[in-house]
From TrEMBL:
Keywords: GTP-binding, Magnesium, Metal-binding, Nucleotide-binding. Residues 290-462 form the Hflx-type G domain. This is Hflx-type G domain-containing protein. Transmembrane segments: none annotated. The lineage of its organism: Eukaryota, Metazoa, Ecdysozoa, Arthropoda, Hexapoda.
């Protein structure tokens, strides 16, 4: 049901001939794979052996597939909840409006609480978060050194006066600031209320800005549920603060009950989706499609790289943080013509509160169970080494906490790829330490070499071999090979007109089976 629905959806816009081709080639072979159209690379010479045949498949963009058949629908729209989340996050209603934002990046100058990232880069990232929201723009931004980020009112009296003067100078110089983004994970409700009184403007923290972006970018049911789930710890934390510091009750008993019920329902719903996802994963494993997960820091070019590797036109890279929130799979061909699935994933980012990340961890399970992981890094970014470190540390801890590490080799199946090489000075580019391939998803530089490396790694980790085998013309051997291996080429045998040469990629186990069935039994 799920497959046929998705296939039907994906075939919209294709011609009858294409549809015919699709049904005959795909059904019973690729589970849940969508439209397959031929198209050429702009610079095909760079892609020897990779002719551009591809298919795209999006796990997570089909509701039936997301949820599993027969599951009940959970309505995310709830006026009572909206009232609660709006007051906790403050900005929902203003999301559609234009905002001129003053970005403040507080940072600890010395001591153990000093962040690993330099404040310049943290500020750049904070600005990029604001720019990821349509109609929001950075009117002014500044870094503020502090002794600690844990003070009750965040800023001391002197610093606060300084900031108020800066704000009033900006207003008098004609810059109309409409809200203040303090780029710290979470501000307590007390801090927010105090600062809003002082600045007479709405104040947002990193958690609430990221949630706004995620809400906008969530497309699939799973992503929407995950974002809804990610909001709940934030509301609880804001409520706790209000009760603790002021002794007032921020949520009524019925609102608390509503929140608990919503949390429970979301958990159940996500659990159902995840068990269905696991089922799909197992099906894919049975079909023996090797899987290449593409991971990396947000905006590194993961989606662009997959688009370049698969020619999948529907993929839309965007200059926004957290543009991709759904794990999607896109079929591509390796130079040996073996079909593989490239999985696009959610980007990583430093200084994101744990409550937020946790909701997206399960989405990354598919990536963690992949045969090969391509770690895309933006080598044109000044801070790319720090970004690399952040992704590696997070991936390693995800592997450990999810228990995947026991069943899967630790990150030794990773290929480190440096993307956006076209943005580096052309003279004397040196491959940075730890990077195996320098590529440009824009100019397609280095793509063929990368595909060859992916192929080498895939064959190694999945125990597959490339073989050329001589079989009787039209015999059952050929049919067997088509069923059990990836046949990449067939040709007439120049030495024997009764035989043909079949090139195939096959696992060692299947090769043994072939020998047993056709070579040994014939001898016997
Ligand atoms: N110049 C240049 N720009 C690139 C290259 N690869 C990607 N970009 C640009 O970088 C931006 C981000 O690209 P995406 O592919 O969306 O990045 P992503 O890693 O998928 O980002 P998220 O999904 O948000 O985590 C887009 O504006 C791309 O056009 C490249 O090789 N060269
Ligand atoms: Mg993306």
């Amino acid at each position: 049901m799920a497959t046929s629905l998705m296939v039907r959806q994906c075939l919209r816009g294709t011609t009858p001939i294409m549809r015919g081709m699709f049904w005959s080639r795909t059904i019973g072979k690729l589970e849940g794979v969508s439209a397959s159209l031929r198209c050429k690379y702009t610079d095909a010479s760079k892609f020897k052996g990779f002719k551009g045949k591809h298919k795209a498949m999006a796990f997570g963009d089909d509701e039936e597939q997301d949820r599993g058949p027969g599951s009940e629908r959970f309505d995310l729209e709830d006026a009572e909840y909206d009232a609660v989340v709006n007051s906790a996050m403050r900005v929902q209603k203003r999301l559609q409006n234009e905002q001129n934002v003053l970005v403040i990046q507080p940072y600890v100058k010395w001591g153990p609480k000093k962040s690993g990232s330099q404040p310049e880069y943290q500020l750049q990232e904070a600005e990029a978060l604001v720019r990821s929201l349509p109609k929001w723009r950075v009117e002014h931004s500044l870094k503020v050194p502090l002794e600690s980020l844990e003070k009750k009112q965040l800023f001391g009296a002197g610093k606060l006066e300084e900031l108020k003067t800066i704000l009033s100078d900006l207003q008098t110089s004609g810059k109309l600031i409409t809200c203040i983004f303090i780029s710290k994970g979470t501000l307590t409700l007390g801090q927010k209320q105090f600062l809003e009184q002082q600045f007479k403007l709405p104040v947002m923290d990193r958690y609430s800005v990221v949630i706004q972006i995620l809400r906008l970018h969530a497309i699939s049911t799973e992503a929407k549920l995950q974002v809804a789930m990610a909001e709940i710890p934030y509301i609880w934390s804001q409520m706790k603060d209000q009760e603790g510091s002021k002794g007032r009750i921020y949520l009524t008993e019925s609102q608390k009950q509503m929140l608990r019920l919503r949390e429970r329902k979301l958990k159940n719903e996500l659990a159902t989706i995840r068990s269905h996802r696991e089922l799909l994963r197992n099906k894919r494993k049975q079909k023996a499609y090797p899987i290449v997960a593409v991971v990396g820091y947000t905006n590194a070019g993961k989606t662009s790289l997959i688009k370049a590797l698969t020619e999948e036109k529907s993929l839309e890279p965007k200059d926004q943080l957290f543009a991709t929130l759904d794990v999607t799979a896109h079929a591509g061909l390796l130079p040996c013509k073996l079909e593989v699935l490239f999985m696009d994933t959610v980007g990583f980012m430093a200084d994101i509160p744990t409550g937020l990340i946790e909701c997206f961890v399960a989405t990354l399970e598919d990536a963690m169970l992949a045969d090969v992981i391509v770690h895309v890094q933006d080598v044109s970014h000044e801070n790319f080494l720090q970004q690399k470190k952040h992704v590696e540390t997070t991936l390693a801890s995800l592997l450990k906490s999810s228990g995947v590490a026991q069943s899967h080799p630790p990150l030794d199946n990773v290929i480190n790829v440096g993307n956006k090489v076209d943005l580096l000075a052309t003279q004397g580019i040196k491959t940075p330490t730890g990077i195996q391939h320098l590529v440009s998803s824009k100019t397609l530089h280095g793509m063929h070499e990368l595909l060859e490396e992916i192929e080498r790694k895939i064959l190694e980790v999945t125990g597959r071999r490339k073989i050329i085998i001589r079989v009787p013309m039209g015999g059952s051997e050929v049919a067997w090979l088509y069923k059990n291996a990836a046949v990449t080429e067939t040709a007439a045998d120049p030495e024997d007109s009764q035989r043909m040469l079949v090139s195939a990629v096959i696992t060692e186990a299947k090769l043994q089976q072939f020998r047993h069935q056709f070579v040994i039994s014939r001898k016997g």
